[in-house]
Amino acid sequence: MLRAALPLLGLPLAGAGATEEPTQEPGSPGEPPPGLALFRWQWHEVEAPYLVALWILVASLAKIVFHLSRKVTSLVPESCLLILLGLVLGGIVLAVAKKAEYQLEPGTFFLFLLPPIVLDSGYFMPSRLFFDNLGAILTYAVVGTLWNAFTTGAALWGLQQAGLVAPRVQAGLLDFLLFGSLISAVDPVAVLAVFEEVHVNETLFIIVFGESLLNDAVTVVLYKVCNSFVEMGSANVQATDYLKGVASLFVVSLGGAAVGLVFAFLLALTTRFTKRVRIIEPLLVFLLAYAAYLTAEMASLSAILAVTMCGLGCKKYVEANISHKSRTAVKYTMKTLASCAETIIFMLLGISAVDSSKWAWDSGLVLGTLFFILFFRALGVVLQTWVLNQFRLVPLDKIDQVVMSYGGLRGAVAFALVILLDRTKIPAKDYFVATTIVVVFFTVIVQGLTIKPLVKWLKVKRSEHHKPTLNQELHEHTFDHILAAVEDVVGHHGYHYWRDRWEQFDKKYLSQLLMRRSAYRIRDQIWDVYYRLNIRDAISFVDQGGHVLSSTGLTLPSMPSRNSVAETSVTNLLRESGSGACLDLQVIDTVRSGRDREDAVMHHLLCGGLYKPRYRYKASCSRHFISEDAQERQDKEVFQQNMKRRLESFKSTKHNICFTKSKPRPRKAGRKKKDGMANTEATNGKPPRDLGFQDTAAVILTVESEEEEDSDSSETEKEDDEGIIFVARATSEVLQEGKVSGE
């Protein structure tokens, strides 16, 4: 199997070219049998995997060396350094072996190196930003690619007719259109490698990178159609062939997207049932995504579009179903594979350029191609942006258009496609190969080196590397609902209307089908943010030297005894222990930055405004959704809470910490326990206290448990996971407990 895969990896077969000599049987008459060998060199048995591992090791060591000097990597993109390293290694191999080896083979690139990069890009692509700019991305990917391909090919043919291209370049109009189709598409690998180091704003990056991913369908269709026309001959092309070419554009693009969505559905559905076999969750993600790529490639559809839609469509449900450890494994494994593949691609591009037997030089063709791809790219961006700005709420200014025009990079996709051309059908293949290599090196090295100074000189808005605050997220969701309601009222079914409809459909059908019940229950966003803020406060408290408290006192031996805790202020204890953490989540004068202060304010608002139902009148009622008949009770209780908080705002509070056990128990037992507590208070001479939200809300630091509740279980439910709970209690209650316990 390794020997069959060796040519695909661009590696020479073991002993290739050598004549097979007849071997003598060890038991032949006249010769004694060989003795036991203590050492035997078997290079040919491990040649293929050893060379693959060696190339990956060389690429990894090269990345380490590059990043030893931060000044070099800040000025020169890593892709440029890898191409230069490939040129050096290719020259060394050529000087030693007297022939070029280890080339970038199209099969290796399309089947092994490209899928991890595209999967990483699609899986971690910001879906909201992508769909917000989907119209612009499709315009540049479809219309822009068609414009660049036809104008570049026709201009090169006109250049030949004008006599500026050497007569030895034997190519007709269809040949130049074929070359224009493969040289005009923006390469996703090159764009990802260069733009991630430039750090332009998110909108500009998603438009250029989204274009490079979605234009694959147009590139595949144009390449196959033009290649078929060249093989048929221009005289044999009929009108129906042009119609089939147009129809194939929709078949390849929509078919590739459909294949990706089908495998995304299967992946999400499969991970719903893996709670008892967590170890195979990362394997399923990679296997089904790669199966989507191979299926689309097998059906002659857009494989890049298939794996992009698979990653984009499955992430939401897969991330909710798999465990935290599996999410970490998927993330780092995917990033590692993508980084290794990208490194090997650029190195092999440099090595492949050394083999002069595969290309022939023509200055007119090379210079004309460089000029036309830059000129028609800029002209197409300007014309398309003018049309798009008539409909965009936030238009793309001239500076953005300059960066988009200059960021149309070409890469390994164009090189692999030009290598696949048949020299017998296209006599000018060698000239096309040389021109493609020059274009790839120019766009990656020259434009890659100058795009960062250009961005700084034009003062392009850079990306902001921080997550939006809670206030921003709440206002963003509020504006989304308002705009959707406005469109619904005026009868205009626009983008916000359809997005709101999709979210409702997803919440009602898809999420319940593709997510486990336990994962679907905890997807309330506001409670999730509130939960994460509590975790951050708890971690901050522990990191700053805080000690663990319990409901009756402090448990660590370095702190005062339990009997003296009830009469000691928690604030004084924290001050004595040197901890700067504040357990009172409503106190906001101890935060250190404006962002923390804003989050603390929103934390206070959520703590006071969020409503959690206390009673369940129906056994089938969900604790995360409030029925319509409880709306009046909710409004009344929120009003009472606000009034009570205002009246008692001058009182100081204390916080204790208690541990809870994560053990499932029947609902009836929980109710009996509550009833028992109420009866105990009644027997002590105290009337049952009406617990409000402030008394029941807790700050929980959850420890992930592998045991989850079964989806088909309706009689039992689990309590919160084991963790730290911060409970706000009045001073009088703590003092009263201390007196009772002392008695």
UniProtKB/TrEMBL annotation:
Residues 662-674 have a biased composition (Basic residues). The keyword Nucleotide-binding does not apply. It is a multi-pass membrane protein. This is Sodium/hydrogen exchanger. Keywords: Antiport, Cell membrane, Endosome, Ion transport, Membrane, Signal, Sodium, Sodium transport, Transmembrane, Transmembrane helix, Transport. Residues 1-16 form the signal peptide. NCBIfam families: b_cpa1. Residues 661-724 are annotated as: Disordered. It comes from Balaenoptera musculus. The lineage of its organism: Eukaryota, Metazoa, Chordata, Craniata, Vertebrata. Belongs to the monovalent cation:proton antiporter 1 (CPA1) transporter (TC 2.A.36) family.
